[in-house]
Backbone:
């Protein structure tokens, strides 16, 4: 592992991942508050110093004002590099929300930039459902849900971890 000038590290222009504004801000803040984490989570680069793992962290480190970064240089064939880029970003695990709730405090988790779900207010849905004219159905029905943009991306990301489509995710979550 090497500790080098951040200017020597090149972002991967073919990185298939992105980070939304709010999550990016949380990542930058996390790096500023806990820089000791950086040597144990180095940026993985190839011999040309192109990032294979850690593109978002590199961007956040630049934003946080770091001028040096820890990197792990690998000498892999192109095929292995492409495989790593995907496998490094696949989310295999899931949060055990009960364990989190019983072991850590909500405020502590929020401080550490974990998106903790909390209902903002009790919503009255009693007037939301209207009678449906079942004689004029065309075979497909639509359920419309309204979210803020930030919550929309959270829901979309969470559903994508459950199944391939939102419809499949709902079926799976509802045990249908």
Residues:
């Amino acid at each position: 592992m090497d500790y080098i000038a951040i200017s020597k590290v090149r972002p991967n222009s073919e990185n298939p991942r992105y980070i939304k504004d709010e999550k990016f801000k949380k990542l930058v803040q996390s790096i500023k508050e806990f820089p000791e984490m950086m040597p144990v989570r180095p940026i993985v680069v190839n011999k040309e110093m192109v990032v294979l793992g850690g593109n978002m962290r590199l961007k956040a480190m630049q934003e946080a004002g770091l001028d040096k970064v820890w990197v792990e240089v690998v000498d892999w064939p192109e095929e292995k590099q492409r495989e790593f880029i995907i496998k490094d970003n696949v989310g295999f695990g899931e949060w055990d929300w009960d364990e989190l709730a019983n072991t850590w405090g909500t405020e502590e988790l929020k401080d550490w930039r974990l998106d903790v779900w909390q209902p903002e207010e009790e919503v009255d849905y009693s007037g939301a459902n209207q009678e449906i004219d079942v004689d004029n159905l065309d075979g497909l029905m639509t359920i419309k849900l309204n979210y803020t943009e930030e919550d929309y991306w959270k829901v979309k990301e969470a559903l994508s971890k459950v199944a391939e489509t939102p419809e499949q995710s709902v079926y799976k979550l509802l045990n249908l």
User: Anything to note?
Assistant: The first strand starts at residue 2 and ends at 5. The chain has seven helices and four strands. The radius of gyration is 21 Å.
